[in-house]
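Fig. S4 source data, part A: sequence.
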Amino acid sequence: MKHPSKKLKSELIEENTLLKQRIQKLEKSQSDHKQELDFLKQELNENLLRYNTLIDQSRSIILEWDTDGEILFINNWGLELFGFSKEELIGRNVVGTIVAPADAKGENLVEKMNKVQKAPDEYYSSENENIRKNGEPVWISWTNKGILDQDGKLVKTLSVGIDRTMQHQSEISLIQYRAELEAKVLERTKELQKTIDLRNRELEERKEMNIALRQSEEKYRNLIERATDGIGIVQEGVLCYINQILAQISGYSIVESIGKPFIDFFVPEEVPKVLDRYKRRMAGENVPPVYETALKCKDGSRLDVEVNAGIVTYEGAKADLVFIRDITERK
């Protein structure tokens, strides 16, 4: 038998159900099946022990709810995340406790829950806004599976959830910044269009913009290079990308910078602060993204800068996206 940690929780529940059905049949059979019955009971107890251990140690939300939406079970991690006690949740309807009728964008979450139960034989994944006991919204990524009885009728739904609130907020921040950069590009494009034949130039620029929008990676790189701030990406403590602006303000070329430890580019007295923030951010702590520090330029001079950092996925791996602004004049 495979170790339960390698099984999906819903598979363990289905396996336990099958074992119970076999035991019921054997209990009605002749006494010469007692040995097999005892073995199956022992196997069921061991399986239940492994299942309960897995549930208790899981860092995911494990939730069971019936066809009326009433909560049948939620593990300790789920109780802690939502801020409820077990007595406050068991027997209450999912809607109005951990799920609002609609999220902040107006999406009908009740309809989404009904969709889960319309296909009980399939795994259904979704990500939606949920609510804590104190009313605070949290974003959960759910995987749902219907549990059927012997007649194939849906009796309950098993939902496994992962908290993605911090990732969701980071994604929103990046989308907003990206939208601001796009707005600046469009504004400058309009200024150029005024210098030539307005109609023809406008049609040409729109065509070029549509092509650029479809080529997301290339467009994103172009936007970064057009930004007025220096931009760098740090992965596993080393620089894996910088834009031309960052190269200009630091004095180090792009070739000189890539592959070097990022802390080498800060003045010594600022290294502990910068390194501490980086480690805490990469560990998942909610670290304020904006702070002031100083770069150590190639010519040995000190450059006062403002840093705005956030976690992103770069080439399939976790990375730190850093915007660096020269604040010498402001200082």
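Fig. S4 source data, part B ends here. The two ends are 66 Å apart (CA to CA).
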